[in-house]
Design goal:
- The structure is a single chain.
- Helix content is about 60%, strand content about 0%.
Length: about 80
């Protein structure tokens, strides 16, 4: 597997990673299981990030609307 600097690693890339085998290397099943766990976590974090970005944008739009509606309002007691 080749990692190019600047590119984000995607979950499917982690799941499909292949490593060279050596006589006394790591247990391929354990490596595969670990990579699957990492990929699942990446998927979960990506979903959470998408949800957070959507909610953040919704809040920004609501704030802009609120500011537009209250732009001409003055605070009570400061109308002098």
């Amino acid at each position: 597997m080749i990692y190019v600097t600047g590119e984000r690693v995607q979950a499917y890339q982690v799941r499909s990673a292949v490593f060279d085998t050596r006589w006394r290397g790591l247990d391929p099943a354990q490596v595969h299981d670990y990579l699957c766990r990492v990929a699942d976590e990446m998927d979960r974090l990506h979903r959470e990030l998408t949800t957070a970005r959507t909610e953040s944008e919704r809040m920004r739009q609501a704030l802009r609307q609120w500011q537009s509606r209250h732009n001409g309002c003055r605070r009570r007691g400061h109308d002098d």
